[in-house]
């Protein structure tokens, strides 16, 4: 039987309770302490989990010798200071996305975890989702051919953040998925956007991010907190077929289109020849079993702590996403100029 691990969750706002529920039900894991600066949130949590200790001071959690692992679901500007203190105190750490507010901070955490031989994992939740794993399986099988282009739209009305813009809030999901599926790194980034809500300086509510990857693939990511409809879709265009992932659909989340342009081997001489080269074939939707991604993510964190293996969403993976986000902010300040990473 695997060793029991005592876990604390810091941050019981919107997202924290989802992590709390999954760590509470994970086998050989004791949810020991919950921390939030807001006592009312703690009272709600205590009602749900009466056996769990609560505190408003995260230092109490970090200094508790009985706690082995800390899960951070705080506003982004607090990720680095809390994670740093936790690692320095010998705790394994899972941090929500985006891992930190800067590349420098992410690098520091990655180095610290390595030096202390501790697990550092980032909550790139989609990497644990069944449709994303199915998409990777399909793309790795070669069914779509070589990937040429990817696009993603993550739009809704809110939920506004006060310390990060919409790219830092929503695009980590798209970037983590793209990096995971391509296995390539970003080469350069362009980003434009507007602070349509005047939330505060550098808090754009609508952005368009373009990424050129080192393997030649081009990606467009549209993020918005100001849209009447919730849109969560991604398109992967390959040399053979195209795939659309619509996460809003309850069923048929993935559709594979046998569409493309077949260039006549001898080239084409008339416009009519060119038109005939369009291929509009069948569409099918592959089946897969849904499991709650956070359940797998929580279990994976605990498994990595016990085995000492590198998480699928490691500190280095968190750093790669933050590198793109930091470049996107620089590009925004320069009206969309290309920033080479
Ligand atoms: N993986 C996902 O799909 C996903 C989804 C939503 C949010 N998130 C991430 O989760 C994190 C939290 O986001 P949220 O939407 O839950 O934010 P939130 O503002 O709803 O919750 C943050 C909580 O932290 C508490 N807090 C603030 N300062 C504190 C301090 N010094 N000590 C203790 N507690 C403190 C607040 O009281 C609040 O309850 C962010 O990094 C966000 O990007 C991830």
What is the average per-residue confidence, as pLDDT, rounded to a whole number? 95
CATH class of the largest domain: Alpha Beta
Relevant CATH superfamily of the largest domain: Dihydrodipicolinate Reductase, domain 2
Q: Let me know the number of strands.
A: 15
CATH fold title of the largest domain:
Dihydrodipicolinate Reductase, domain 2
String of helices and strands: EHEHEHEHEHEHEHEEEEEEHEHHE
Q: For the terminal residues, how far apart are their CA atoms?
A: 45 Å
| General shape | globular
Number of domains: 2
How helix-rich are the residues, as a percent range? 25-40%
Report the uncertain regions: none
What does this structure look like?
With 341 residues, this protein is α/β, with parallel strands linked by helices. Helix content is 34%, strand content 29%. It is built from 10 helices and 15 strands. The strands form 2 sheets. The protein has a 9-stranded mixed beta sheet with strand order 14-13-12-11-7-10-9-8-15. A 6-stranded parallel beta sheet has the order 3-2-1-4-5-6, sandwiched between helices. Helix 1 (16-25) crosses helix 9 (293-307), helix 4 (79-88) runs parallel beside helix 5 and helix 7 (166-182) crosses helix 10 (315-333). The N and C termini lie far apart (45 Å). It binds nicotinamide-adenine-dinucleotide (NAD). Nicotinamide-adenine-dinucleotide binds next to loops. The site of nicotinamide-adenine-dinucleotide (NAD) has 22 residues, from loops.
């Amino acid at each position: 039987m695997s060793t029991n691990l005592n876990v604390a969750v810091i941050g019981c706002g919107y997202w924290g309770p989802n992590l709390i529920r999954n760590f509470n039900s994970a086998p050989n894991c004791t949810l020991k302490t919950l921390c939030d600066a807001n006592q009312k949130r703690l009272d709600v949590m205590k009602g749900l989990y009466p056996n769990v200790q609560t505190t408003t001071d995260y230092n109490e959690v970090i200094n508790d010798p009985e706690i082995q692992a800390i899960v951070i679901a705080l506003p982004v500007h607090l990720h680095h200071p809390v994670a740093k203190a936790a690692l320095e105190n010998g705790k394994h750490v899972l941090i929500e996305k985006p891992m930190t507010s800067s590349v420098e901070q992410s690098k520091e955490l990655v180095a610290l975890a390595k030096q202390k031989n501790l697990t550092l994992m980032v909550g790139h939740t989609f990497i644990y989702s069944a449709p994303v794993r199915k998409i990777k399986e399909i793309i790795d099988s070669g069914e779509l051919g070589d990937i040429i282009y990817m696009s993603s739209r993550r739009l809704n009305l809110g939920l506004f953040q006060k310390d990060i813009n919409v790219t830092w809030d929503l695009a980590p999901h798209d970037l983590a998925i793209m990096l995971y599926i391509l296995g390539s790194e970003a080469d350069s980034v362009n980003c434009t956007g507007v602070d349509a809500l005047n939330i505060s300086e550098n808090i754009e509510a609508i952005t368009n991010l373009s990424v050129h990857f080192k393997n030649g693939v081009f990606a467009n990511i549209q993020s918005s907190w100001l849209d009447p409809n919730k849109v969560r879709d991604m398109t992967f265009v390959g040399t053979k077929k195209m795939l659309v992932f619509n996460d809003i659909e309850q069923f048929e989340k993935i559709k594979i289109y046998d569409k493309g342009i077949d260039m006549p081997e001898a080239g084409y001489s008339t416009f009519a020849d060119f038109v005939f080269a369009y291929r509009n074939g069948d569409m099918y939707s592959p089946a897969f079993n849904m499991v709650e991604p956070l359940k797998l993510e929580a279990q994976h964190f605990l498994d990595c702590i016990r085995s000492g293996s590198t998480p699928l969403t490691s500190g280095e993976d968190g750093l790669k996403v933050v590198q793109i986000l930091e470049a996107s902010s620089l590009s925004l300040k320069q009206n969309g100029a290309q920033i080479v990473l």
